[in-house]
Amino acid sequence: MKAKIGALSIVAIALIAIFMTINAGGNWDYILPRRAKEILAIILTGCIIAFSTMVFQTITNNRILTPSIIGLDSLYMFIQTFVIFVFGSAHFTLMNNNVNFLISTGIMVLFAGLLYKFLFRREGQNIYFLLLIGLILGTLFSSLSTFMQVLIDPNEFLIVQDKMFASFNNVKTDLLITSYVLVIVIAIYFWRYIKYLDVLSLGRDQAINLGIPYDFVIKRFLIVIAILVSIATALVGPITFLGLLVANLAHQFMKTYQHKYLLAGSALISVIALVGGLLIVKHVFTFSTTLSVIVNFIGGVYFIYLLLKENKA
C-alpha cells in the first residue's frame, strides 16, 4: 500500500515540477512566484474536494454521492446572485475577494449547522432524510438564483455567469493564506475523529453496535465537510464531478478499507488530475477549453458508468 502512495507521490511531484518550469524562458523571478501561488491553490482545492467527498461517501455508504447533493453549491450561487441583484456588481462584498469569501463561507456553514441541528434534534434520524432535505433546498436555491438572473442587467449577468463555473486558470490566490489557516485548524480538529471512518464504512447499525457515538460523530463530520466545500467553492467556483471521480478511482486503485490510505490516495489522484489537466489545457488545447469542462465531461461519463455498474450488481 505504501508503494502505491509512493508511486502517486512521484507522479504528482513530477507534474508539479513540469508545471513550474515549462516554457519559463529564463524569467524565473517573474514566473516562479506566480506559478507557486497557482500550484498551492490547486493542491489545496484538490485535497479539499477529495477529502470531503471520500468522508461524505463513507458516512452515507454510497459511492455515487458528493457533498454537492446537500445544496451547498446552489447556496453559493444564490448568495452571489442575491448580492448582485440587490446591491449591484460594484458592491464591496463582490469587489473584495476576502470579504466575499468570509461572508459566503460563513452563510454556507451557518446553513449547514442549522440544517444538521434541526434534523438531528431527535436521536435516530436517518441520514438519507438529511440528503433529501438538502436536495430540495438546493433546488429551491437554484430556482431563486435563476429567477433573479433573468431580471438583472445583462452586464451584471455576465459577472454572475463568471461565478457559475469553476475556473482553475484564474484561481483567487489572494485567499490562499485565509484558506490554508482554516484548513490547518480543521485538520487539527478532525484528527481525533479519523479513527472512526473505518468503522463507519460498515454502516450505521454495525458502528453503533461497536460502540461508536454515531450521531455525535456524524454531525462533526458533516460540519467539517460543509466548511471544506465552502472553501473549495469560494476558491475556484462550483465543480461537480471531480470529487466523485477521484474518490472512486482511489477505491479502485488502493483496494483497501483503511481510510488513512484512501484519503491520501484520493488527495494525490486529485492533484495529479488537476495539475495534469491544467498542463493539457494550457499547452495542448492552448486555452480553447477549460479544465472544469474536461473534468465535468469525464466525471459525467464515469458517473453514468457507475450507475450502470450498480444497476447490474
TrEMBL record:
UniProt keyword terms in alphabetical order: Cell membrane, Ion transport, Iron, Iron transport, Membrane, Transmembrane, Transmembrane helix, Transport
GO molecular function, one term: transmembrane transporter activity
A GO cellular-component term linked to this record: plasma membrane
Membrane topology, record value: Multi-pass membrane protein
Matches recorded under InterPro entries: ABC_BtuC-like, ABC_transptr_permease_BtuC
Segments forming a coiled coil: none
Chief localization: membrane
PANTHER family: FERRIC ENTEROBACTIN TRANSPORT SYSTEM PERMEASE PROTEIN, PETROBACTIN IMPORT SYSTEM PERMEASE PROTEIN YCLO
Protein name: Iron ABC transporter permease
Native source organism of the sequence: Brevibacillus brevis (Bacillus brevis)
